[in-house]
Amino acid sequence: MALEPTVKALAQGKNFGAVTVQLPSGAAATQIMWVDADDDHVIFNTEVERAKFKAITANPRVTVTIWDAENPYHYAEVRGRVTETDDSDAARAHIDALAKKYQGVDEYQNPIGSRRVIVKVTPERQRVQ
């Protein structure tokens, strides 16, 4: 399923997303993330040793809600599955591109404790408000 144009525009803009995963305990965990998109996926970037990545490895179902920084009442919710991950050098380049988009710097400034990984979410349900 291709991304709705509004979902894609919100994800490619300088807007934050809330990524919700299910932990092994069954509890839900939500983190505010930098997000991105291609034509078919909502994309985020994390590290392979983070709890959220371990959770999606065990259970690929996620929800990503992206809100418009200029109007938080305008948002999109994507429920879907993680269908692709990439922990190659492209993941480091991607987090640097996100740092440029969100912070205006050429390189991601936070310490990196393990390999970066690009996470692609294929939508099963999309809702725009």
Overview of the molecule:
- The chain is globular, with a radius of gyration of 14 Å.
- It has a 7-stranded antiparallel sheet.
- The chain has one domain: Pnp Oxidase, Chain A.
- 24% of the residues lie in helices and 42% in strands.
- The protein has 3 helices and 7 strands, in the order αββββαββαβ.
Q: Tell me the Rg in angstroms.
A: 14 Å
Pattern of helices and strands? HEEEEHEEHE
Question: Mind telling me the CATH superfamily name?
Answer: Electron Transport, Fmn-binding Protein, Chain A
What is the CATH C level class, in words?
Answer: Mainly Beta
Average pLDDT taken over every residue: 97
Task: Name the beta content range.
Answer: 35-45%
Shape estimate = globular
Distance between the termini: 19 Å
Structural class category: alpha+beta
Provide the number of structural domains: 1
Largest sheet: 7 strands, antiparallel
Give the total of beta strands.
Answer: 7
Helix content: 10-25%
Tally of separate helices: 3
Low-confidence stretches: none
